[in-house]
Amino acid sequence: MTRLDHAEAASRFIASEKHEAFHDARLWDLRKKRDREAYAIPEWEQLRQLASDIKEHTLTHLADYLEEFERNAVKNGVKVHWARDAAEHNQIVYEILAAVEAKTLVKSKSMLTEECDMRPFLERRGIEVIETDLGERIQQLDNEPPSHIVVPAVHKLRGDVSAVFARTLGTEPGNEDVSYLAESQRRTTRPYFLRADAGMTGANFAIAETGGFVVCTNEGNADLSASLPKLHIASIGIEKLIPKVEHLGVFIRLLSRSALGSPITQYTSHFRAPRQGAELHIVLVDHGRSERLGMDDFWYSLKCIRCGACMNTCPVYRRSGGLSYGATYSGPIGVIIDPTFDIRKYSNLPFASTLNGSCTNVCPVKINIHDQIYKWRRVIAERNQLPFVKKATMKAAGKLFGNPKLYRAALAATETALEDLPRFAIYNWFNPWGRQREVPRPPVKTFRQWYIENRGKR
Amino acid sequence: MKTSRDVILDAVRANAPRIAIPLPPVPNFDRDEPSLLARFRVGFELLGGTFVDYVPGTDLNGKVAELFPEAKVVCSAVPEVHGTKNLQDIKLPAELDDVDVAVVRPAFAVAETGSIWLSEAELGVIALGYLAQHLVALLDPADIVPNLHHAYKDSRFMTAKYAVLMTGPSATADIEGVLVRGAQGIRSLKLIPAPRGTQTRQNV
């Protein structure tokens, strides 16, 4: 697997100023809305602590809760399946569909099925898969993965959507009216809901106590996907477990406020048992999660409830676009999850951060995201996964910072050099930082020079 | 050979961090709320629901007709309102595709978020709440609980096969953050504050 070059991919996104500026502003707006909601709740910080504690408790007792969940789900008439990895997940889903000769599958958004790359697997086997979330549908029709876990097409402008729909849904070319575009998707998706053989959802939470699960959407497309066809399949990552129904009070209060800055999603749907005359299957998926649970520094990332708040607040994410991460999960949470799937391929991602800590501060389940980003950098350096330029400069910097005399001499030389050197000597391949930025003018004197002059004699 | 189930559970058991983290109790976070109905209304309207003025005891059929004069197919899951389409006759959920207006009575509502609670018992056919173009909810103001912590203590979560906390009509902001109501499911959600049992079929 080749190493993903985040900076290079981001530069392609940045090349369109309109897109970059909109993306930045739109996500920052979500962050501001999140703040407004959070500040309106006096117990916000207490809720975050509760959410973190409940998740940590569950993850440290996960096998017991998984067994309890399975027991109760089976009692409810649900068929429970277990998948070790993506391949097994896809095979199980295919077999469930094949057993009833299902040809059309309507599905709501699920990051897990993205992780498993399920759609092409089913399509190759003759099953038509329709994404029903508007953003996800746009991405499906444009043959792109989602760029954000909550708003999948946030990197596109209305003109892009209009072009995709004109090409694929036969909408009026050039009509960029948002209501018209949304209505076109409604009109073209509804027939699929009515005739689909099967529906699929993910899950935001799975409750051990009831064997049921919760799906949160604003469009109601999960409910349409689940309540029309005779077969409902839910793919659920094993880390989605929570012990009791009462814990939902904590998580539902946090989720949409953190994600979109709304008190709750329009539809918070609880599925516990198949409806009369229908089948309900749950696929519990590991796909690297049990292994991550054993990583001392990194198991906390399993607490994630996929709200996207860390992405919305991240200056690097906002300006580089989700697709530049080249992985299912982007932004700060992606940076700490993706290397667990493939450390070589994603060894660049932990460097796509300023370590400002904003992600940690907004995380509703208190994941120490920026600490983990820093720790991943160490792991990647130790496992020799640093690219040459980074390694060479870091090594030189390490020598310099470790030796005060050398440091002072270098500093003086650099300052003179920055004054006198031609631009090509400063803005070159060895200085990626300078590609989109100007190096600040050096100060007249160093702090040390100032200190010796002003305080040194006392 | 070990099943995938056992492989996963064994791996989870072997790898789980050995840290004792107790399960914390969850408080109710009660606060002084002079009127649950007023608080409910704020949340409900925030997410796009429409609150309908209603004098308790007056004709609900007339009210629905007044709200939707154009409606051809009305499907009611409540005794107070007669529909044109009988929910009992529905064999497949897709048959509800032509419903213009559906009428339901939520089991309860949540003041904090402005959500109404519906299960298969209140909807009759679950798809009714999604395929109809418009949904009218009759809510007894006595059925409002303060917040989600109270809501999740309701035992019906343990018995309902399906339950939804519905807050406003179907919505999306997936294109440039522009809010569009009626993305996939209902285009509007109207709430009539009608107490239970004030009206019977005879006096309609």
Q: How many strands, what sense, and barrel or not for the largest sheet of chain B? A: 5 strands, parallel
Give the CATH superfamily of one domain in chain A. NagB/RpiA/CoA transferase-like
Determine the N-to-C terminus distance of chain B.
67 Å
- Quaternary assembly: heterodimer
Cα shape of chain A: globular
- Spatial ordering of strands, largest sheet of chain A: 1-10-7-4-2-3
Morphology of chain B: globular
Mean pLDDT of chain B: 95
Measured by DSSP, the beta-strand proportion of chain A falls in 5-15%
Q: Low-confidence segments of chain A, ≥5 residues, pLDDT <50? A: none
The beta-strand count of chain B equals: 11
The CATH topology of one domain in chain A turns out to be Rossmann fold
Unreliably modeled segments of chain B = 200-204
> What is the fold named in CATH at topology level of chain B?
Rossmann fold
How many helical elements of chain A? Answer: 22
| The CATH homologous superfamily of chain B | NagB/RpiA/CoA transferase-like
Record the strand order, biggest sheet of chain B. 1-11-6-3-2
CATH class of chain B, named Alpha Beta
Helix/strand/pairing class of chain B, anyone?
Answer: alpha/beta
Search tags:
heterodimer, A: 458 residues, alpha/beta, Rossmann fold, six-stranded parallel beta sheet, 22 helices, globular, B: 204 residues, five-stranded parallel beta sheet, four-stranded mixed beta sheet, 19% strand
Please describe what this structure looks like:
The complex is a heterodimer of chains A (458) and B (204). Chain A is built from 22 helices and ten strands. Chain A is of the alpha/beta class and 458 residues long. Among the domains of chain A are: 41-287, NagB/RpiA/CoA transferase-like (Rossmann fold, 3-Layer(aba) Sandwich); 388-454, no CATH class. In chain A, the strands form two sheets. A six-stranded parallel β-sheet of chain A has the order 1-10-7-4-2-3, sandwiched between helices. In chain A, strands 8-5-6-9 form a four-stranded mixed β-sheet, with helices on both faces. Chain A is globular and about 90 Å long. By secondary structure, chain B is of the alpha/beta class. Chain B has a single domain, classed as NagB/RpiA/CoA transferase-like (Rossmann fold, 3-Layer(aba) Sandwich). Helices cover 23% and strands 19% of the residues of chain B. Chain B contains seven helices and eleven strands. Chain B has helices at 4-15, 36-46, 60-67, 120-123, 128-131, 148-151, 156-159; strands at residues 50-51, 74-76, 101-104, 108-110, 115-119, 134-138, 144-145, 162-166, 171-172, 180-181, 188-192. Chain B has a five-stranded parallel β-sheet with strand order 1-11-6-3-2, covered by helices on one side. A four-stranded mixed β-sheet of chain B has the order 7-4-5-8. Chain B has a two-stranded antiparallel ribbon with strand order 9-10. Chain B is globular. The N and C termini of chain B lie far apart (67 Å).
